[in-house]
Write a structure and sequence with these properties.
The chain has 214 residues and is mostly helical. It has one domain. The radius of gyration is 18 Å and the shape is globular.
């Protein structure tokens, strides 16, 4: 089964209809702090969850409870990522590329962390792929735990609640309900724009550095 969003296991509505609330929480946890979770549909999943809560399909829980549970899963995922980076960080940076693990993803998280410091824990929440690797980099760089925890709670709550609530209220708009797949594709496109911009900037910097006279 495929859709405009790709295989069914990347289709938020299929994931929610198949695995329900437990599936949402597991995916949010994995995308927030597990190396293998970077490809999972975090933003579109939460938006769809909010939409389905409003619609009363598949998810029969109040909005406040959904937001609270997803926030906890997001914070817990980042906590695990921080612990993992703190425990295995040095080895990760020496690890060769594999089918699932790419050094460029870790480097991207490292560059984001270096640029924004502690604020990156909040900002990274809204950037796919980066949000998976930033807590790992924070742990590997031995960021002060209390500082990480504070920014993690704020970032996790803002992201989880904000995207879910957005889906809930927009999901009651007829145009959104009738064009949900196109809306989700749009969310995915918008969420990867920052990555594309940063990629183009990195290439430009690399070219400029290569052309500098020695």
């Amino acid at each position: 089964m495929t859709s405009a969003l790709g295989p069914s296991f990347l289709d938020p509505q299929w994931l929610i209809s198949t695995f329900g609330l437990i599936g949402i929480l597991a995916i949010v946890f994995a995308e927030s702090g597990l190396l293998i979770g970077f490809f999972l549909p975090g933003d579109s999943l939460l938006f769809t969850a909010g939409l389905l809560v409003a619609d009363g399909r598949y998810l029969h829980v109040p909005l406040w409870l959904m937001c609270a549970l997803v926030s906890v899963a997001a914070v817990a995922g980042d906590q695990f990522g921080y612990w993992f980076g703190h425990r295995f960080g040095p080895g990760l940076f020496r690890r060769p590329d594999s089918r699932l693990f790419k050094q460029e993803n870790l480097a991207r998280g490292g560059a984001f962390f270096a640029k924004y410091g502690a604020r990156s824990i909040v900002l990274a929440r809204f950037v796919p792929i980066v949000r998976t690797f930033t807590p790992i980099v924070a742990g590997a760089s031995r960021m002060h735990y209390r500082t990480f925890l504070a920014y993690n709670v704020v970032g996790g709550a803002l992201w989880a609640t904000g995207v879910t609530v957005l889906g809930y209220f927009l999901g009651q708009v007829a145009f959104v309900k009738n064009n949900i797949e196109f809306i989700l594709v749009g969310i995915v496109v918008l969420s990867v724009i920052p990555i594309g911009v940063e990629f183009l900037r990195s290439r430009q910097r690399a070219r400029s550095g290569g052309n500098e006279p020695r």
